[in-house]
Amino acid sequence: MAGDVLSQSEIDALLSALSTGEMSADDIKKEEETKKVKVYDFKRALRFSKDQIRSLTRIHENFARLLTTFFSAQLRTYVQITVASVDQIPFEEFIRSIPNMTLINVFEVPPLDGNVLMEINPNIAYSMLDRLMGGEGSSHSNVDNLTEIETKIMTNLFERSFDNLREAWVNIADIDPIMTELEVNPQFLQMISPNETVVVISFNSIIGETSGMINICIPHVVLEPIVPNLSVRYWMQANTKEVSPEQKAIIENNVNKSVLPLVAELGTAQISIEDFLLLRESDVLQLDKLITDPLYLKVDEVPKFIVQPGKVKKRMAVQILESLEGGDGDDE
What we know:
Elements: H1 8-20, H2 25-34, H3 50-75, E1 79-90, H4 91-97, E2 103-108, E3 115-120, H5 122-132, H6 148-168, E4 178-183, E5 197-207, E6 210-219, H7 220-223, H8 232-239, H9 245-256, E7 262-265, H10 273-277, E8 295-299, E9 302-312, E10 315-323
Antiparallel strand pairs: 1-5, 2-3, 2-4, 3-6, 5-6, 7-8, 8-9, 9-10
């Protein structure tokens, strides 16, 4: 009983048995002590910890956001993709859970070994195809009747979407997804043992007015080399890595090459819009500074130096007289 969640009817029956004397608290305690054995299904072996599942969830939540942006731009319609669930189940159970006729992208993720599946519900797939062909995004075709042109269009679309998967995984592994085939019948997929554990990431997807599921199936054998990278400790270490001297030198070199605008302001003047519209060549404006007053040299619109104007080899120039400390935008 310990660890199990009772339904309301079971709770009512238990309270009724206690109140009528049919069962005592000691009986319940003895029953709990005797039920120490838990049933374990070896066909549903749990290869990933809750911590690792949470990491996979975070990765694919990022992937869902990137995919939403990508498909919105490609299909030019309302797109919303969110993670619905992340589960570890036998491969056979995943195959039974998807439609007999659907759209399945099979792709490799080098340097990792093995194949990954992306299954797209036929309603979603044909809504995408209809939008790409200039339609309103309706879904009315049969997935088993894909023409060569339709297959090529869908293949190109999903091959380009893999850039988002690469970006979502960049903190865990530097993968390079490569599409190998487009399948419509899951029964023909025999890439791993039926009892092999896989992680299935399910996405709720809305394309225009059409909704459906997109599932990504990742076998355990594919993730096995990088399973340690899915721990929270790895994420924390990755976020607190110190910058190496070489990286510091590169950053400093790039900063030194940055270009900033320098402006020596001679002064300012205020005039009415009417006067501004009547300005003509040779008109004179009176500024708020005298010829003998020093000027401010602004770096990216922020006053940083006091200067005086002059000439160097027939070119206008300024000479720095003093630095301004603690001015606007000064960090010192």
